[in-house]
Specification:
Blueprint: E1 2-4, E2 26-28, E3 35-37, E4 50-52, E5 57-60, E6 74-76, E7 81-85, E8 99-101, E9 106-108, E10 123-125, E11 132-133, E12 147-149, E13 154-155, H1 158-165, E14 173-175, E15 201-203, E16 210-211, E17 225-227, E18 232-235, E19 249-251, E20 256-259, H2 269-272, H3 274-278, E21 284-290, E22 301-304, E23 311-313, E24 318-319, H4 328-331, E25 334-335
Parallel strand pairs: 1-2, 2-4, 3-5, 4-6, 5-7, 6-8, 7-9, 8-10, 10-12, 11-13, 12-14, 14-15, 15-17, 16-18, 17-19, 18-20, 19-23, 20-24, 23-25
Antiparallel strand pairs: 21-22
């Protein structure tokens, strides 16, 4: 049994009785104008598998009764005004939880250790909150995790985060934008060993990192999207970027990079051939990816890698010289205008 409400904000008072629908498995109330706290008795819906309340105006804390929804597979509360210490909420009863999206709220505290009890998790977004602390080794128990976005928080220790997250073997999407402020980006080419072999999207923009484009990126043969924009990365664009066989989106906007445009980038297979276009990954991402995470309701959101525009963003650096002659497909992807 499911309940879908797409634009019925006038029915908000009736939501208090929805908990009487004890056979309900899906509750979709997203993209409305609901406000006030989430129902304190939501836990009475013990058969609930999908709770989709995103893009509303809900306020207050996560209701403790939510822990009684032990059949939850998907919980999406993104883009509301929820608050409270997230590390104080006990996620450990939600053993079937597969997808968790709490992005764009006002949660505080640290990354909740109880979340690592939810070993069925494949996708987690905690982006655009006020979370502090660092990535814990405990995350390694999430062996099925493939999508992780914790952008726009207050995390620290990027070197420790890379050392740990490289061991999450199924990780395909890692978005850590706007954390680790003013730290040095790790450049040791051995830091990841054989890790990150399934990584397709890596976003480390907006952190004000110092250092150079990390050498360990050269090992990420499945990488398709790389965002290092809005940092203080200096030095040259490394020629080995041109050896990454699947990369089609490189964002180095607003750094301190100097030198010339490396001719090796004109040979990027994923940008230069029709054959690569035919082989592009058209599977759906576990959660939407936002190119501009500060505006999570903008139109620049993507649910497929293949939907992202092939591009090389290099504006606002210190580059000089000439762009080497390139195939037409490559030339059309080198952008100097805002995205």
């Amino acid at each position: 049994m499911s309940c879908r409400i797409f634009d019925l904000s006038l029915l908000m008072p009736s939501l208090t009785t929805i908990v009487q629908l004890d056979k309900l498995t899906i509750l979709e109330l997203f993209s409305n104008e609901f406000e006030g706290p989430i129902l304190k008795d939501i836990g009475q819906l013990s058969k609930l598998e999908q709770l989709l309340l995103h893009i509303n105006n809900f306020t207050g804390y996560l209701p403790p009764s939510l822990m009684s929804c032990t059949n939850l597979v998907t919980l999406n509360l993104r883009v509301n005004h929820l608050e409270g210490d997230l590390s104080a909420f006990n996620f450990s009863t939600l053993q079937r939880l597969n997808t968790l999206d709490l992005g764009n709220n006002n949660f505080t505290g640290t990354l909740p250790l109880s979340l690592y009890s939810c070993k069925s998790l494949t996708a987690v977004r905690l982006a655009s909150n006020q979370l502090e602390g660092h990535i814990s080794l405990a995350i390694l128990v999430l062996r099925s995790l493939s999508f992780l976005s914790i952008s726009t928080n207050k995390l620290t220790n990027i070197t420790g985060a890379i050392r740990i997250l490289k061991e999450v073997k199924n990780l395909t999407t890692l978005i850590l934008t706007k954390n680790f402020m003013n730290e040095a980006i790790p450049n040791d080419e051995n830091i990841i060993g054989e890790g990150f072999q399934n990584l397709q999207i890596l976003a480390l923009g907006g952190c004000n990192f110092t250092g150079q484009v990390p050498k360990w990126l050269a090992k990420l043969k499945n990488l398709e999207v790389l965002d290092l924009s809005q940092n203080r990365i200096s030095g040259l664009i490394p020629s080995w970027l041109g050896s990454l066989p699947n990369i089609f989106y490189i964002d180095l906007f607003a750094n301190l990079i100097s030198g010339e445009f490396p001719k090796e980038l004109t040979s990027l297979w994923a940008l230069a051939t029709q054959e690569s276009n035919n082989q592009v990954d058209r599977s759906y991402l576990e959660l939407l990816v936002f190119v501009m995470p500060n505006n999570a309701t903008s139109q620049q959101r993507y649910n497929q890698l293949s939907s992202l525009p092939p591009a090389i963003y290099l504006r606002n650096n210190n580059l000089g010289g000439n762009i080497p002659e390139a195939p037409i497909a490559i030339s059309s992807c080198v952008r100097s205008q805002p995205k």
